[in-house]
Amino acid sequence: MIIELGHFAAISALVLLTFQMLSALYAASCQSLVYLAFSRRCLKTGALLLLLSYSALCYGFMSDEFSLLVVATYSSATLPWMYKLAALCSSHSGGILLWLLCLYAVMCRITMNRTHCSLELVAYMQAVSGFFTLTLLGYLLFYLNPFARTLPVYPDVGRDLTPVLQHGAVLLHVPLIYSAYAVLSVPYFYVAAQLLHGRVDWRGLVWLKPWLYGGWMMLTLALAMATSFANDLSGWGLWWNWDPVENMVLLVWLLESALLHAVCYSSQHRGFLSFVVMLSIIIFLLCLTLSFLIHSNIVTSIHYFSPDGASTFPFLVVLATNGILSIGLSVTRKHIFSMSDPWVSYSSAHIMLHGIVIFIMMAFVLVLGLLYPIWVGVMRETILWIGPPYYNQMFTFFMVPMAGLMVWHVLIEKMGKYELFPAVYGVLILLVFVATGFLWPSPLGWGYVFCSILFASGLAFVLAIGCHVYETGWRYLIDHGAMISAHLGVWFLIIGAYCSTSLIQSGEVVLPIGASVDVGGVSLTAERSYFKRGDNYVSEVLDIQVESPSGVNRHMHPEIRTYDVTKETKSVVIAEQIGLYNLRLILSRHHHAGRSVLWFWVPYAFLVRLGGWLLLVGICWASVVAWYKRFYLIKERACE
Amino acid sequence: MIRQFHCLVCYQESLVDSRSPFAEALRGEIHRIVDEGGEEARIIDYVTSRYGSAINQVPVWQGEGILLWVAPPFLWLVVLRRISRLQRAHAR
Amino acid sequence: MRIIAWGKKWMPLVAFSTIVMLFALRLDVHLHQVSASMINKPLPVFYAYDLQRLSQVYNKNNFLGKVSVLHIWSSWCRACEQDNQLLLSLARDKRVRFIGVNSLDNREEALDWLSIYGNPYKGIIFDSTGRFAHQLGVYAAPETYLIDRKGFIRYKVVGKLTRELWNRKIEPLISLYGGK
């Protein structure tokens, strides 16, 4: 009964949404406050109804209502309650419902804002967001009904969530992604509203900044969750393996960074405005495209949805409609935002422009890597994988100029004073190049050169910051702290990534109980093997004692879990930090002599974590400052 | 050398890292060929004749794959040229 | 010149539409052919036992004289359950001989599976080590091969076999290579 109520609530929300969109459009064209208020009311009621609908679906999951198709496919009775919620978010229809809920929340927030006072702007934003939500909700209810029943068949046990997805990080990752999608649609709504309005009010961009930072933070967190999840996944061996699906999230992240930088500098130079418009629309369309590609299984990876042929083509129609609308708007109203100031050579804005261009190029690499297999699939009907070698090399190629630009930009105002700086930079690179030759055990080929440049750039960056502090005092650190922290974080991340991927060692050893094996300078002794019972699995655990020459003595417990419902197995990766290295053990197959254990030596992996934390700190700091500024600046501006 | 091959079942994993039955069996086959004295070329031929060239993870230097390598730097150069042209036009 | 200006203006929309069309085409494609490398080559030489009657032996000669459909399955492969249902209905076709290959599996579990889901095959090759599957170029269960009367591999389906695929691609090949 509750499920049917939820279904009814969703349908009513759809009807209200139509009214909301139409009245918002009318309000914008006739500048009528009455219709706008009506539209707002429709929106709020619709939001409540959708919340009701989502709660009904949650209830269905928690109460093991297996006559619901979604529950039967993704959940089971023995699943712990947290993973039932994860199953709800990870399913086709449940995920899109969550996305819609986030969209509604975002829409309510942007329309409640009374401080960007133009009536038409608010009305147009409501209309555009209403249109998008309408297409998505319509698609959901007509083609991918989350409340569909399996009757007349009544399954008494569900198919269970894939064991691979039963991980804490997945719980956070999926809702974060969907809310990030919703938040990242806000720039598009704003830009589209401006375009529809025909008049431009770019001072309002300061209003957009907290949304951008918020979306960026969610994306970064989602990526961090994904890498933590990949880290614990036996098949990956490392924290980032250029999985096609995660590539797509990285793609959006890169473009979002570019957009953020463009918005921050648009007050200085109006040439960035065309970037703002273009990037907002591209990011919005990308979020939609990426959902489509994942849900339709065109791009497959560890994220595998049970394919449902009938529902994928309508999703493509949703994508096409929104795309044509958004791109059509930008193309036909181009004259509004294609104003530009002259670009002064080697000015701060000029360097930022080049930085944004490199961001877009890196995103382009990812797009190519995404589209090419699809093209091959259509033309030759074969599967093709683009692997790490391509992405690693392309990204290194672009990262080098990016690193140089970052350093240059920090110094640019003082460039005249520090004429020696380019020479110092060059000497640094040479010194690092020589030093790495002595410190690192094996040569890395071309990567050697690039890595030295990256290392040296990081040091030069710190030096440049030091120069500024010397000039202006410690205040510089507080003013620009967010930027420094975020960029340092990125630097550590890249260095850590580079070191771990190049210097990783791995192998497989057979460990009979009681035997001792020497692996990379550390001795592993299998002490005993025992069984352990979890919530919905039985795991076989091997107790391994790890002794290193430096006196470290620890126990590690890699295990293989066999899940009750599906009988699928999952290996749990156990990692320990030993000195500068990260030792990871995975329990593998039985051998006649004993269990075999896969081992990985990952040096400098802690740099990745350090970099990630610094980046997050930087972003949080920046978003707090942006929110604070917006709050006070807009309060001062009177309604015109 | 086995690292250069994909595990076709588990996607991102290379043949060395994968634990799937397919990967283990194929590793066994390759070890058998090595024991019999076969060299690298014979192994590559054996694997690609059965599974196609897509199993080779070392990327795509031949045929249309070269576009993937050339396109990003090329596009970058085009954009840089456009920016410098805009600058010169403004300077005049 | 006006066309170029018009093209430059509408290029984003054109590019987007091309990509959407690419996706639409891709939705239609069934990626059932990983590689065409074993196609039109003869079956590899092999020697294997039957799953149910351990005394019976298979080799290449068992595939001569009639068009055969070779289906690779295992008891641990979920998609094989659905394939089996389809095969049960297709097995009534007298022009074709259905032979199964039970690859990388445990004999008791395989026999149990057959008793639950049914047995559409004339005979099942027991390939516990996966050696025969490797020689064929199998990488995932289920896979289906079409073998003509002279023992040459003519078609390969990777993944689930659907009735639509059978009608569209395999039926014409059966009429071409075999059945009188």
Model description:
The complex is a heterotrimer of chains A (640), B (92) and C (180). Chain A has 640 residues and is of the alpha+beta class. Chain A has four domains: 1-154; 167-346, no CATH class; 406-479, no CATH class; 505-605, no CATH class. In chain A, 65% of the residues lie in helices and 11% in strands. Chain A is built from 19 helices and ten strands. In chain A, strands 2, 3, 4, 5, 6 and 7 form a six-stranded antiparallel sheet that branches. Chain A has a four-stranded antiparallel sheet with strand order 1-10-9-8, with helices on one face. The model of chain A has no long low-confidence stretch (mean pLDDT 82). The mean pLDDT of chain B is 67. The longest helix of chain B has 26 residues, at 66-91. Chain B has helices at residues 21-35, 40-51, 66-91. Chain B starts with 20 loop residues before the first helix and ends with a helix. In chain B, 58% of the residues lie in helices and 0% in strands. Chain B has two domains: 1-58, no CATH class; 60-92. Chain C has 180 residues and is α/β, with parallel strands linked by helices. Chain C folds into two domains: 1-30; 48-177, 3-Layer(aba) Sandwich (Glutaredoxin). A seven-stranded mixed sheet of chain C has the order 2-1-5-4-3-6-7. The longest helix of chain C is centred in the N-terminal third of the chain and has 27 residues, at 2-28. Chain C is elongated. Classes of the chains: A alpha+beta (640), B mainly alpha (92), C alpha/beta (180). Chains in contact: A-B, A-C, B-C. Chain A binds chain C through residues 285, 289, 292-293, 296, 298, 312-313, 316, 319-320, 323-324, 327-328, 330-331, 334, 371, 374-375, 377-378, 381-383, 567, and chain C through 9-10, 12-13, 16-17, 19-20, 22-27, 29-35, 76.
Tags for this model:
heterotrimer, A: about 650 residues, alpha+beta, six-stranded antiparallel β-sheet, about 65% helix, about 10% strand, C: about 180 residues, alpha/beta, Glutaredoxin, 2 domains, seven-stranded mixed β-sheet, 7 strands, about 40% helix
* Most extensive chain interface and residues per partner: A-B, 42 and 31 residues
Measure the end-to-end span of chain A.
51 Å
Stretches with pLDDT under 50, minimum 5 residues of chain B: none
Give the SSE string of chain A. HHHHHHHHHHHHHHHHHHEEEEEEEEEEH
State mean pLDDT of chain A (0 to 100 scale). 82
- How many distinct helices of chain B? 3
Estimate the mean pLDDT confidence of chain B: 67
Binned strand content of chain A = 5-15%
Order of helices and strands of chain B: HHH
